[in-house]
Amino acid sequence: MKKLWKKIFAKKERTVAQQIRRRTIFSFTVFSLLLFVGYEGWLWLYDQPDTASGAKKPLREGLQVNEGIFRKIFSNDHLAKSYPKSAAVKQPKVNGDVGMSSGFDYMHWRMKLVRKPGDTISVSLQDILMMPKTEVIFDFKCVEGWSQVTHWGGVRFSDFAKKYNLDTQTNMQYVGLVTPDKQYYVGIDMPSMMHPQTLLCYEMNGKFLPLDQGFPLRLIIPVKYGIKHLKRIGTIYFSNERPADYWAERGYDYYSGL
Amino acid sequence: MVWSGLLIYWANDVYKLGWGNTTVLKFFPDSFYKALNLSSHLSRGMAFHFIFMWVFFLNGLLYFLYTIFSGEWKYLLPNKHSFKEAWQVVLHDLHLRKKAPPQDKYNAAQRIAYSSIVVMGFASIITGLAIYKPIQLNWLCWLCGGYEAARVEHFILVWGYVFFFLVHVMQVILAGWNNFQAMVTGFEVVKEEQAVTEKIKEQE
């Protein structure tokens, strides 16, 4: 009995060698465990299937958390930097033709403005041209990583909303835009849409838009990546739900704010 | 972070080393993308990058706070001798100089490397945010010299990490098991006779 007691007691007064041994074993256990958890965690994340929203679920949720954070610092006072006209490129890049189907009858084009379901009015290019023109010359940014200084002219969306008495509508959360052939569509949060540099745009470099740049009317929204600058607007509508978004369905960030 | 960054960079891989129309090295050759399966995953790259930026940031912040509050910073920050001694460390490690410079917990070259990596991490966050939100954080973008400049800086910093990583791993392998054990446990086992001989050597 005494012997056993001694044995247990002795364990408490460890020699230096024992202490080193214990701490080493402990440290290496923690080290291996961290490696294991890191590795397994990575495998778990990487093996998550792509969801209908085009991105892995945890990643999509993460993007939405980021959106929540960065929406807080959004302000109408934060303007995209303006450049002199001479800095603008003569031939801006044409990057994508989804929604630009051939056989488009631009002579009879009218924009459908859906004030609420069942209450749609038509807006002609004439109507748009009668409103005050705003020009922006800014560094257009693509998700791909390139950027170009480009020069656009059109009507501020906020001016347009005022003229068409869209107060109820602009108190909603989102705006949806769709091309006439319904192939391309974007959803924009209201604060970005009401930003003073967001234009319903009909001019590029002081002339009417070329067809491949969205004639007669396109969206120019400097606070977003290029994927949101829908060309050839067919329909505008308002919603508190997120409108469908072409590139968000293909795994990109819905917000895509700059 | 580097992997997802490469997925993003692929979409607009414009950087190269060279002058005029002469290209010495293009970043990156097609074979590089092919070997690592980096092509056509831009959206995936962005999603991963913008999640792991938080891991990068929090990890860096915790490490930084730890070094401050534990007092470890005293061993990590270069002092006035470090820059001269670091050169001696390099020469010694390349076997061009016989006498070993003072080691302490970390030698001069280590002090500079371990402090630089913290500064680089900070710079990656700044340049990264400048690219991520160039309008809402336009003052950061301005600080980096503009959007395009921030992107170049963000890219060059990665080469710094690659260089650090390669040298670091090589040094750990060369330093042997005892050193690696010390990296994990936080203490180094030195046998008494060995310690005494080293002390004597130092005094000589």
Q: Quick summary of this structure?
A:
The complex is a heterodimer of chains A (258) and B (204). With 258 residues, chain A is α+β, with helices and mostly antiparallel strands. Chain A has helices at residues 2-12, 16-46, 57-71, 125-129, 157-163, 167-170, 190-193, and strands at 111-116, 119-123, 134-141, 147-156, 174-178, 185-189, 199-204, 207-208, 218-220, 235-239.
**Rg calculated over all Cα atoms of chain B:** 21 Å
- Gross geometry of chain B: elongated
* Overall structural domain count of chain A: 2
- The assembly state of the depicted protein chains is heterodimer
Number of helices of chain B: 10
β content of chain B, as a range?
A: under 5%
**Uncertain runs of chain A:** none
How are the strands of the largest sheet of chain B arranged? Answer: 1-2
Number of helices of chain A: 7
Content of β-strand of chain A: 15-25%
Helix-and-strand structural type of chain A:
alpha+beta
Low-confidence stretches of chain B: none
Count of folded domains of chain B? 2
Q: What can be said about the biggest beta sheet of chain A? A: 5 strands, mixed
Helix/strand structural class of chain B: mainly alpha
Name the helix and strand elements of chain A from N-terminus to C-terminus, one letter apiece.
Answer: HHHEEHEEHHEEHEEEE
| Overall helicity of chain B | 55-70%
Average pLDDT of chain B, to the nearest integer?
A: 82
Q: Kindly state the number of beta strands of chain B.
A: 2
Give the tags.
A: 258 residues; alpha+beta; 2 domains; five-stranded antiparallel sheet; 7 helices; B: 204 residues; mainly alpha; two-stranded antiparallel sheet; 69% helix
